[in-house]
């Protein structure tokens, strides 16, 4: 990133403290009861998740079933990509017309983040509105900046979920800058794999203190996003968090942002509302229009509201939980899908990284991608669908625990 300039410097009141409280209070949830036939164990697990969402908005999960070697493969692929030269990484640089790919100029609350990212969508193509204007019905397609592997064509139908690779270089002024400034996640859920360096901090709801999330080996961090806060009508809160930087060690992390289809209208669930104390606290807003406005704000200075609100009557229905066997199947399916999909993404990214060093790069990348696609096993074609299915069910568990007992 070169010499530090004022664009990276946080305001005095938002600068990180080098001495912070470790997050022993962040719930650590064991998912092994999912393999049990004990319905009471499943119910206790659902309650534990609900309490974590209510009190913290964050929790870590262990015994999740995702093979460690799959995680290690994508972490290795991420390191391989980011260690390339800026010229090589810029071959897949994102822009206003194509917001997927490599980028090193993100801002959070108008202060530049000390990081580099690589984003890719999991549905090819992903549809979003062309603009944030309510009357503009035009859609545009987002594509990854490398050839499409046909295997992914049927995955994540209509969803706008995406995976990000984060790289936080060593920073000479960790007391002045942040890897990511304070923010809340806009989507439904985020699942994060962080390395052993750590740096994620969560703003504790009880006192506003910034709490460091201590890395737990082979754990995944899950946090509630703005959509679930709206769905639950504030019973669950999307909590502010930020990322510290390190003067001695670089840091890597991999978040998966679980987001709905572009046409989804987000509003409080009718099951949680009445005409007395539980009135809706939010107007309905169109998710796709919000995404379009947010993408635009990455490249233009805009004074946007926290949410772009558009009233277009939408009723979000909540399916009933299907018992312990249904929950077990969904989560095991999710874990299997993560294992298979991560391995695929890892290989694909490595192909791109190697291909960028060859001449002509586009042809060599395409040849590699086509060969890679043809060699995939047909019985893995639902891998990413399993991830989506599992995360969707997790969101149902989270939101359903906010509902009053029947």
TrEMBL record:
Keywords: Iron, Metal-binding, Oxidoreductase. Residues 159-260 form the Fe2OG dioxygenase domain. InterPro entries: DIOX_N (IPR026992), DUF7798 (IPR056700), IPNS-like_FE2OG_OXY (IPR044861), IPNS-like_sf (IPR027443), Iron_ascorbate_oxido_reductase (IPR050231), Oxoglu/Fe-dep_dioxygenase_dom (IPR005123). The keyword Metal-binding applies. It holds the Pfam family DIOX_N. The keyword Oxidoreductase applies. GO terms for molecular function: metal ion binding; oxidoreductase activity, acting on paired donors, with incorporation or reduction of molecular oxygen. Belongs to the iron/ascorbate-dependent oxidoreductase family. This is 2-oxoglutarate (2OG) and Fe(II)-dependent oxygenase superfamily protein. It comes from Actinidia rufa.
